[in-house]
Amino acid sequence: MSHSQSPWPFERPERLADLLREQGASPDECADLLPVLHRLPEWQAPQPEPADTRRLLARLTTELPTLSPVRQAIRAHQQRRHANFSLLLATARAQVSLFGLGFWLVSALVTLVGSVVVLSKILSDQEMVLRASGPLLAYLGTLVAFRGRGARVLELELVCSPSPLQLVMARLVIVLGYDVALGLALGLVLWAGGAEHVLALTLSWLMPLLLVVGLALLLSLRLPVQAAAAVAYGNWLAILTICSTTNLQTLLLTPELSVLPGCIGVALLAIALLRLHADMHHLLPRP
């Protein structure tokens, strides 16, 4: 190998001397080492024979553990965490701070207004009021919980320890848990206020809420979150408007079918969660 083809820093002897001084070599040591180092590019490293490689691997194998204790500990820890429902609750607890005080207060205010309207009997169709105001909580919760795409932080969420599916489920636990709690509180307020058919009124609040959440989450796999939530809630309001102005109300909004929107919503949630991982690339911002 010629000197002109040797790699840096051998092409620059003054740089090589500087490197030796940086390593603590004295001037005398530099004078002794420089001639040797200048000849290193001329040295041809011997090529190992296959037998040499096998002997080296056999020697190294005896020094390595058959199973990595670190990998075993990590695998056992992950299995315990995935098998434990506390992982989901711990992730949800860590996500609570993302919602902000406004979400909690506005949701509670919507519930309070709905209960006041029903108890005061300002409107004759009390169930229609709850069917319209309950899904509003789903609309607000979807906007707040899944705003990562619009905020351009989805890439950061993907590198977190919880998977995208775990993050979505944790946020659904927060949104639906809070909304269900508000629905139960609404039922207690209506019962204490002497309202009739408290169970039917509570279902009129909760079941459409589940439907809007499920539809919004499913649509968010293809649409921006704001558009998906608006389409889901807007379609539900359109259905209520059509039913209230036609005879369909007696068919579609009967007490016997009060749980149907909730069942459809749960089915849509399951479909959205199953497709979330496969469709994750659609959620990433385009360059």
TrEMBL record:
Keywords: Membrane, Transmembrane, Transmembrane helix. The chain crosses the membrane at residues 98-122, 128-146, 167-192, 198-221, 233-253, 259-278. The keyword Membrane applies. This is DUF2157 domain-containing protein.
